[in-house]
Amino acid sequence: MHSPSRSENGDSDGSASFHGFEEGITMNPDNENKYRVVCRQRSQVKQKLVRIQRTLITNSNIGLAQLNVLSKNLSAVYSEYSGFHSKVLFFVSDDALDQQEEEYAGFESIYNDVCNAVEELLLAAKNTAVPESPINQPAQPVIIQQQPLKMPIPTFDGSYAAWPKFKAIFNDLMANSGDTDAIKLYHLDKALIGNAAGALDAKILSEGNYKQAWDVLMDRYDNKRAIIETHYRGLLSLKTMSSPSYKELRALVNEATNHIESLCYLDQEINGTAEHFFVFLIVSALDSTTRQSWESTMKKGELPKYKQTIEYLKTRCQILDNCETAFQAAAAPIESKQVPFQSKIQPQKSYAVSTSSSQSTLVCDICGGSHRNVQCSALSNLTLAQKNEKSRAAGVCYNCLRKGHRAKDCPSDKACHKCQRRHHTLLHHDGVINKESRSNVSAPVEMANQPSVIAVPKQATAQQTPALVEPPISTTCSSFFTKSAKTVLLQTALVEVFDINSQPHLYRVLLDSGSQVNFVTEEMANRLGLLKTPANVPIVGINALRTHARDKVKVQFRSRVSAYHAELECLVTPRVTGIIPTSKIDISQWMIPDGIMLADPEFHTPDKVDLLIGGELFFDILEPSSIHLADGLPQLRDTHFGWVVAGVIIDPHVVNVSLQYSHPPVEDIERKMQQFWQTEEVPIVSKLSTAEIACEAHFLSTYQRNETGRFIVKLPFKENLSQLGNCRSLALKRFLMLEKRLIRNPELQTQNVNFIREYESIGHCREVAESEDVPNQQVYYLPHHAVLRPSSLSTKCRVVFDASAKSSPLELSLNDVLQIGPVVQNDLYHIVLRFRTFRVAFTADISKMYRQILAAPSDRRFFWREKPSLPLRVLELCTVTYGTASAPYQATRCLLQLTEEDGREFPIATRIVKKETYMDDVLSGADSLEQALEAQNQLKQLLHQGGFIHK
Questions:
Q1: Average per-residue pLDDT in the chain?
Q2: Is residue 523 scored above 80 in pLDDT?
Q3: Which of 160, 225, 583, 798 lies at a 20 to 30 A Cα distance from 97?
Q4: pLDDT band at 518 (very low <50, low <70, confident <90, very high)
């Protein structure tokens, strides 16, 4: 059978192009549909992980609070992915396990990388926030002093020229780091960017073979000939200076010395003919002034030397830098005087101004004749609207009709002879001007490079103007009357777009031949459930305004009126364009022929656009037929979507011209301000829900403390416990997959074995015999996996249990039948605020916090053996387990209960636990060193009485 299509991240994308399933699967159509849905859901969860990874890459200034949120989200993502992966395994046969193992291993690889990055950033944030003090000594069991961060790892973009430097620095860092090969490989993979990012395949990374990875890079990039030729090409393509400026000369010197010194490093001798040739290339790139200055230093018949030439050019750089700085300082007062004048100019307007000095005053700028602009008879014979248009096109002042300045800057003290206003008499209007327009009349409005001009009929009133859903900001200029105005209609159509389940939905699209790419709104993509893939694409618009699209999707659509259908790759943006058209158009007098099927029956009504189809398909969609309605009206063009209306509308009854600018609507500004304040708002603690009250009652009625003071808790089950499956077969499959992966990575296998050995030796789990199980005994088998954290100071490898795994879609997982419980600690916002108030601050971490709390027998089991040759063992968990839904609540609730029972003896520690502890992390302090030491001592004693630390 066919294998499923793959997305860019290697997971099954579950899109409409899905044609089959893995080898070895036989299932009925109903199961096929379920399998597709589960694959899509699993892929969408993986995209969450990719978005977190993208956040870490693109945001270089992530705070401690956001890092903690990302850490929590990572746990949720892994739980979700494992749940959907378990469902996938339910459908596949044993023959297809290897393929699913590759999918899972790919996800785990990304997950481990992201976890490592978050851990490193958390360490960096804590090191930055916490000053060194005698309290933070590593010898203390509670207060942990973090190690200083290492030197930043260099990056390599895949260019041959950068390889020698990267190789030398990276090898030196790794040789002195003392890290294991797995950590070195992690750093090496992170150092590869750009074209080198995919140099190491997933197999090498999963096996953790650092030596093999380095050999791969050496074989690919350690090519001395290619590196040397790269520098030769760089010298041959030195950019020629256009003027004697410091910036251009410094760039030339830097680039030339970089190439030549790199050649020296590669044992290429720079002497004789080679030296003369390199100097020739450098001076050939100089501008004429600098070249002449350099030539004046050379003696007749003497061959130039490289070192002398570079020293001269460096000295020249200093001279140019000093001169340019002096010129800028001298010009600064002049510029400062101009700023207040410039600030009066409205930023929304753009002006066409020419300052050509070659223009003769005897050449008319309007008609090209041999006379002054004010003497132009061609201008005098035009209508007022045509005069305004001609003046604007010629770029002349509206007051004196000369070029080089605007009406507001006109040095002439003359004004209109008829109304004494600041415009030329030729441009005077004799009509009646009302109060509102009179206050604005000074000169005809200069309209250059405006996106659109919207005509408003003279008869329209405020009550008649239709309300727009999202009206754009517009500026209405009543400065002059025109006999006609133009409105350009864009081509819109309604098409059927398919969602993730291949169901059609009707959306409005814009046909734009001027766009190189296609766009879709984020709202539409989310509503249709389209699979997003990362795509960091820069978008450049009018006036070179830049933005970025972070995701892309594939959109399938078809026509409503024909058999035409297509698939497009579209960039996802919050908004494609504004409301089209910007105001409602009266088409009651238009003679649209009968039988015409309009592509957009409501083309004249303002509405949003969800999809933009660019030049990729624009001309494929057009048909040759067209219909001209009448003079001053647009034309109809036939397309595969129906007849679109496009072109210019000329309205002879216009009093105002509305200019649309690229500003956000007022509603958008208000909405964003509201979102800002909601983000910054301190959350209000709400009352407990019924389920949370029941969970609290369960804890208080079931918890116990043993003779050493340690807490013993029971799992807070819901009422649906009877639907819990034991998940034994799934846990066994997952363990066999993990075992294969560990065999390929001996270092990770050793760390994993050591972790389980310690887990068992300190009594956190014990071996059980399945043969001794009581009939109908409720048991649950937990799949587990190893998470590698190279940045951790204590445990670099940790085993995480997957309590969200299901044995079948009809049964529930352990997390499904567990109460989550309420939040009993302060939120991080309050904790960080309090942390900033202390003069002496310290942090602490409760080691293995979950595992310090005993759990009553609940038959939570997992499979284990150290190597495949040994018999399979079944181990039962004896403590609160990381990965279960109730674990955070149980752990933090035990801390709170400890303060209720033993807190009177330790008031400072009680305050710290209640107000300054976030999960197992303490962020606290005091006003003096003595008080901080006392707080530390009390905290250790209190936690010791609860069994959280052991002396």
A1: 75
A2: yes
A3: 798
A4: very high
Q: Which of 544, 538, 617, 603 is nearest to 573 (CA)?
A: 538
Helices 64-91 & 728-744, crossing angle to 10 degrees?
110
The domain ranges of the chain are 226-325, 351-448, 485-660
Which has the closest alpha carbon to 734: 632, 805, 636, 679? 805
- Expressed in angstroms, the distance from the first to the final Cα of the chain is 62
Helix H or strand E segment including 755: helix 746-761
CA distance 804 to 82: 7
795 confidence band (pLDDT: 50, 70, 90)? low
d(CA 611, CA 651): 29
Taking residue 742's Cβ as centre, other Cβ atoms within 10 Å add up to 21
780 three-class SS: strand
Beta bridge partners of 639: 622, 642
Annotate 360-389 with b (16+ C-beta within 10 A) or e (fewer).
eeeebbbeeeeeebbebeebeebebbebbe
* CA distances from residue 258 to 234, 310, 661 in whole angstroms, order as listed: 10, 12, 47
Q: What is the rounded distance in angstroms from the CA atom of residue 846 to the CA atom of residue 939?
A: 11
Instruction: Please choose, from the candidates 918, 784, 821, 800, the residue with its C-alpha nearest in 3D space to the C-alpha of residue 74.
Output: 800
Q: What's the pTM?
A: 0.37
Residues in contact with 218: Cβ distance below 8 Å, sequence separation at least 6, in sequence order: none
Whether the link from the prior residue into 581 is cis, omega within 30° of 0, is yes
Residue 772 near residue 718 (C-beta atoms within 8 A): no
- 485-660 belongs to CATH 2.40.160.40: no
Cα(445)–Cα(429) distance, integer angstroms:
14
- What strands, in cross-sheet order, belong to the sheet with 917-918? 840-845, 921-926, 917-918
CA distances 915 to 684, 927, 936, Å, are 16, 17, 15
How many angstroms separate the most distant Cα atoms in the chain? Answer: 113
Between CA 1 and CA 404 the distance in angstroms is 75
CB 595 within 8 A of CB 508: no
Phi/psi-derived region of residue 937, left when phi > 0, alpha when psi is between -120 and 50, beta in every other case: alpha
